[in-house]
Amino acid sequence: MDKKSFNDISRRKFIGQASCAAVGATSLMSTLTNFFLTNSAVAQNVDFFTDYRALVCFFMPGGNDSFNLLVPTGAAYSEYSTVRGDLALPQNSLLPINPINDAGRPLALHPGATGLRDLFEDGNLSFISNVGSLVRPTTMTDYLNGYQIPYGVFSHSDQQEQWQTSIPDVRSGLGWAGRVADMLNGVNKNTAVSMNVSIAGNNLWQVGNQVYPYTVSADGAVSLNGYGNNNSSNLLRKTAIDNLLAQEYHNVLEKTFTKVKRNALDAYDLFKTATDTPIPADNLGNGPLGKQLRQVAKTIAGRNILGVKRQIFYVQWGGWDFHDEVLVNMSEMIPIVSDAMKAFYDLLVAMGVENDVTTFSASEFGRSLTTNNRGSDHAWGGNQWVIGGAINGKRIYGQYPDLYENGPLDTGRGRFIPTTSVDELAAELALWLGVSKTDLPIILPNISRFYNLNSMANPIGFMGV
Amino acid sequence: MIMKFQQKSKAILLLIANLCMIGFGLAQSTNYTLSDVVSISTINNELSESWPTPGTIVIRRSGGLKAVTVPFTISGSATIHTDYQTNAGTSVTIPMGKREVWLQIIPKTDNNPEGDETVRFTLSNAPAYTISGSNFVELTIKDQSVLPNDEEATRFLIQAAFGADPDELADVKSMGFENWIDAQIARPKGYLQDTLIQQNIIPNYETEYNARMTMWHLIMRRRYPAPGVTVPTDILRQRIAYSLLQIFVISQTGDDLAVNSEGVLNYYDKLIDGAFGNFRQLLLDVSLHPCMGLYLSHVDNQKPDPVNNIFPDENYAREIMQLFSIGLWELNQDGTRKLDAFGDPIPTYDNGDISQFARVFTGLTWGGTTWHDFTTNMVVNESAHDTDPKVLLNGMNLTGGRTTMQDINSAIDNLFNHENTGPFIGRLLIQRLVTSNPSPAYISRVAAKFADNGSGVRGDMGAVVKQILLDPEARDLSYTKDPTFGKMREPYLTLLNFAKTFNAQPESGDYHEANLFYEYYLQEPFLSPSVFNFYSPNFRPPGEMTELGKYGPEFQILTAVTALQAPNNLKGSLDYAISRWGTVYPANEMHMMFPEELLIAGDPDALIRKLAVKMTGRALRPRSFQLIRELLNSLPASGQDWQQNRVDAAVYMIGSIAEFNIMK
Predict the structure, then answer these.
(1) Is B664's Cβ below 8 Å from some Cβ in A?
(2) In 10 A of CB A46, how many CB atoms?
(3) Interface subset of A 257-276, CB within 8 angstroms of B
(4) pLDDT band at residue B507, thresholds of 50, 70 and 90?
(5) Is residue A5 part of a domain?
(6) Which residue from A102, B332, B528, B625 could staple onto B620, CB 3.0 to 4.6 Å apart?
(7) Is residue B371 classed as helix, strand or coil in its secondary structure?
(8) What is the ipTM of this complex?
(9) A253 in contact with B at a CB cutoff of 8 Å?
């Protein structure tokens, strides 16, 4: 059996388990959501949630060197500066923060991260330290024995895929946000525009069995010129195009192409109307990241027109693979990200939805603590943040590691085994969106390796219960 | 697998047009009581024994809604069952409410030299209807031939070149595929750096524009060479180099390469050399080029510095394995993954191997005599090279004390001779040229050529390219019936396909590419967002293709925006120009030319037949043909520019649908 068919079977098994789970589910939510997962078109319960919630993923492709974002200071600084060598930020340049909880050491932020600092100090941002893709809780012995290690660990493409699927031991064609959307989509009374909206192109994260991302640009959607009812010649074209797109194709590529185009046409009018809703002035500027986040805000502002109670957004910016000149590049890019995060949150406050929207950062891996001469190489665990009015802010979650070489987590050159898994991060966010604990294993098949599903506490704890 | 599809003789079906009330004129004039007016035409009429696509005869009616039976006779010099099969008997009934029925004939292949044979369908008179126009159609069946017809040659040029340029089409038809490839391999190389310098392309524009601009010139300029300049016509080599650029990716998205187009083109010329050269040399050339050295940061990579705890940069070490040679998993020669005793795939390398290769790629620095010369290969700074012993893949030991180039040559040998390299690179190139999901048998035939070109040489890229393009899976029509065959036409190739097929020319002779192309389509040469190209070879579009485990790399950049931007830009190209410079530089505007099509705009059937073959290398599906024809018929056949309007509408519709956008 080749790998492809092996994976296909694994995947079908996974889907099969998901469907079977509905039979034994007991809670009302479980029954409903599994029913949605099986056939969301039939099971509509738009009254199930009374509130609106949205999740925003900000992805940093290339691997953000995030141990230079969240940095030990005070007595722990010398350990940091030793291991980082020429990559160490000067201690007096760091921005102090004052976490509510004890992270084991004083921490500070990259000098360019004033926006993140302000969000943190105001209680609207928390960090999750040393998080990454794991198959199961992993020790150094496991690593050395190659026991259930994510495939392609340290590689861009594989770690990006695993952050997005959260199934690092199987190649899955579905992302965890897609699976969440499969489960929750039934609460949206209108599905003409997908509840999963990407402002940054196609991505695996938002692909479910039934819900696929609606991919627009930072400038929004585009219309098809000359397609409309406004005059007879356009109507003729529209009729021809509609009939051409209504054809059944035998070839799956032709079928897929036709479907994408049809969906784009179907979603356009509603999305355009919804995102024309005026939003307050903002400080997002007109850079690519600011424009993407503004497009998210516009889509959130149009939620009632779109007829949705749950939405998931994907935003992406930058190339963070700095094998060279990491300090220079981060000094340019961190302020852009940090200011954009602050401006986006401020805009959500102005819109009155800051408690309804949670934004989290992601990047495929952290980078080696040791230097290759002004650059750093691919590693594994890294530090991420969550932002929102609904979170327990001003805290450091996870276990911030001691930054020295050859310690218990170091697989070499300061590439640390993650101590918090993407599964736990995803689970906490999925629970907040409304997925039940019983249903978590459907979305995150490995979650019970990291989290006792009977626990009263959240997997990480950053979302208010 | 592939051959499980129906036998040709069984595939004959009576195709009936679906009821549809499109086309206002038709809908309004349709009346249950009116008598019928019947006509006969074809969706394609030039058939070939060696390319046995079915010929489709269409019998249409207007006026009535009731079922009507139309008798006909079949005559002509071809003999049924001997020269062709058909689903047509002696009459056909157009069911109630339908407006068209389709009949098919399928040529039978024999080796007899019969000359052109004809099949004529003649409508008989009957009281139930009157006949409009000619009462017959005639289809021609050409003999089995070693030379391709228009359809075959066009399809080939969509795969092997940048679309059916009229000159290339004539060459392919007169030479046949293999001779054409051999002739292309023998042609002088069209180097882009020379083109940039000799033709003095746009010296005053920002220089990052120059690299993609030069490529566009070189591909397009055959018709308008600048005075005194010999224009390269090695279009196959250009297409392969363009494909290699999507494997050995460098990008001008970073500042340094953005302002060094000459260096970027110098790098591209290594891909020109490698297109039919040896893969080992290609891998070495890529590894030593300063643009790659900068892009993947191995220029000035230094040996370990234990005092300062500095390690060699692992960037190039990783990507040369993951992307440029062997990939992540041990492969069989047919491209499938080897599995261990537990059924798991086997990684080709681990991080320990990467650190060994990282130490190999220490000691390279800038060459040339000027500061950061991007057009001279990197040179050696032995004092920066790690001379400790190293262990490469498959237990290859490098003893201590060797020079930088000794180590690098050993590493290149190590990867070049790895069992994975043939199937890994073979699959990637097949995906660029022919189909997204090649069968294991196809990959293994290409990998076998990589291993041995027939003369005992490993890595002969000319032989690999030839196998990819002449392989039965690329050439045999029956493979296209596999529901997973083909690939999405990538945006940049689509643009070039239009420009070449319709001979787009600017008055100035300066070929300016469409502006904002990347912004519209998420693809443009030299602008990949990362070393992972615009799309992954392993991207699976959501839905049925994911469920089937099938890849569609180009679908990764098909979004709700690009899916509609593409037809919008096609419309703009037809209404205005391919590159729109408006009143600023009107002489630079490139207009597609339709001299043959304008002459037949009054006959939508003939117009669609011609455009379908030029654009897709095959006839349209009868239903698509019907829908486009009805749109054209609704456009006036008089007034200013009516011919152009009809041609534009036909090109737009064909260019917008799946039959065009999926090349197969």
Answers:
(1) yes
(2) 13
(3) 257-261, 263-265, 267-268
(4) confident
(5) no
(6) B625
(7) coil
(8) 0.92
(9) yes
